[in-house]
Known about the structure:
Bound molecules: adenosine-5'-diphosphate, magnesium ion
Strand order of the largest sheet: 6-8-5-9-7-10
Amino acid sequence: MGGEFALIARHFTWPTRATDLGVGDDAALVSVAPGMQLAVSTDLLVGGTHFLPQTDPRRLGHKSLAVNLSDMAAMGATPRWATLALALPSADDRWVAEFSRGMHDLADAFATDLIGGDTTRGPLAICVTIFGEVPAGEALRRDGARLGDDVWVSGTLGDAAAGLACLASRAAADAAGRSLRAQLGEAAFDRCRERLEAPQPRVALGLALRGIAHSAIDVSDGFAADLGHVLDRSGVGARVEVARLPVSPALAGHIDHPVVRDAIVAGGDDYELCFTAPESFRARVEAAGQASGVPVTRVGTVVGGRGLSLVDAGGRAVVPARAGFDHFG
Length: 329
Ligand code: ADP
Ligand code: MG
């Protein structure tokens, strides 16, 4: 790509904090502190699959890093370094400047250094790899849930998927999405859209949960699917009361809308944390939520058996319309 090096120099060469050698050489050099493990995670975002084609580039830059920061949060790791591989259809300087600003501002807020990447011409795709540090043996894993643990969720569920349903209904002949859009009104729609396009990773909460939570995952594919991964990996089941799942003020008046009902249980892209912790740690979990400025809600219990049972307030089984997002499902 013509101007590739100028583009990298202009938009992706930021001051670093904790990096021995950053952008500009054949590889970056970093030092992991003694006693720490390196937590590594990568996410690929493809235009048309993971984001709508006209998504605001600044929000896209934010989200591309946010989904990786969220993985660090879910591991209880401190984010340190990231790399960015970018395929761009053209070297649109204004677009790249906005994208870069969105990513830079979030990286700055979470003290994460951009240490390298790759830039090439192609259909718009963004791959960020993030590297974090966690004291050896202390990471929050998916396989640690134990019988009797409480199941917790941070923040609120369903906003992002509700926002997506509203946005997508513009393009497709989707009556349910359009009716939700009309029902929500402008302010609530904007808040849902912001949750979709500019999610706030729960890094402080993840760190505060070290030594408290037995297991954790971030809600990227939908609450039911993601808690399901924890249960599978841990070899346990869980019972969750649907009415206890936390809902935002934006959606509170609309929980009987079929799109919202589905979004809360199975909608993706919320980037909240779902975690389990022993009953004896309830006060400590609440304190971790307070300290990190994110409400936490107890929604159920880890039980014997396999899989997730969703129940209503009367204990009757609730069957969701779909389990969650699966690209090859
Ligand atoms: P090479 O081809 O030897 O891998 P490149 O010419 O692709 O090197 O990249 C030059 C430098 O710029 C490298 O340090 C690389 O990590 C960095 N870089 C390339 N693209 C990006 C990007 N999108 N964001 C951050 N750093 C980048
Ligand atoms: Mg290269």
